[in-house]
Amino acid sequence: MALARYAANEKHSVGRLYRELAPPFRGEYQRDRDRIIHSSAFRRLEYKTQVFVNHEGDMFRTRLTHSIEVAQIGRTIARALSLNEDLTEAICLAHDLGHTPFGHAGQDALNQCMREFGGFEHNLQSLRVVDQLEEKYAAFPGLNLMFETREGILKHCSRKNARKLGALGKRFFNASRPGLEAQAADMADEVAYNNHDVDDGLRSGLITVEQLNEFAVFREQYDFVARLWPELSGRRLIHELVRRMINSQVCDLIDNSKLKIREFKPQGIEDVRSAGENLIGMSAEMAKKHQQLKRFLRSDLYNHYQVNRMTHKAKKVICVLFDTFTGNQSLLPDEVRRKITSEAGIETAERVIADYIAGMTDRYAIAEYDRINNPHTNTFY
Q1: pLDDT of residue 57
Q2: Domain count, the chain
């Protein structure tokens, strides 16, 4: 498929931090996508929380299944708008690589632990994973991804940290925008987690169809499905509703983005960067419906008392691990202690410990907590 003139094109890219020979049978963004899929951090997403802790049920989404679903939606958007599909998919698959165990609860806890040592930002951590922490290649640290892939991974960043990132951090000062592939990946993430959290919330029983029918984005699909299949119920009903919600939002997003692109008439990616606003987005009406649903999920699902109990335990695990390891580095695995020694003067011990904790899966974090703090555990290493 021919790329639009405003799409990212590897021929005009800033390229990689470390020069490499071009791949013989793949494009550069396809190579990025493949490196992400084969990374250790990507595999660990299988056991990291989306909303529900992994061991609470094997039907709930994890960061891995979420990332795959985001990539599917992202490719649909990219293809419809003649954007670079490989780049969009690479950004989608990598966007959560820096997430801690236990979802946002773990992130908030680790940020609190690191407040005197530079804080913790999961978007910046995702970039840190692909730039530094992955250890796959002899010639360079990290995955050595293309500039546009790294740009898309870094959705948000504090101005303090952006100053350290050179060209990659400039847009957080001059109000420029990332490429359309990054914008498409960001919106694919929004659509995926809102709708799939509805699915998981219904599966868990913490929210109900009756509650969701108060919101237009759900009720419109419910009424339509009820007219076609009045006897439909259970999981088939929920699946039908969720997939139709996703479809309606993605179609609206594509149609509205086409209008925005036509209005701004970008001749290249630099016109996209200087547009002053994102060109990929939902219509005002759909965005309002989307936000209403998002607010409901925040108040009634993410703050449900059963989820809050998990959040409370998760924060305790993270904070105890951080305090224990920073207070007694001899309890850390040898490889982590070696990193503290080898990176002295470049990174603080606290940052290396935060990297170690952020890279844990839910079950590994719980096991580490248990090994260190439970005198009755049968495992001592």
Answers
A1: 46
A2: 2
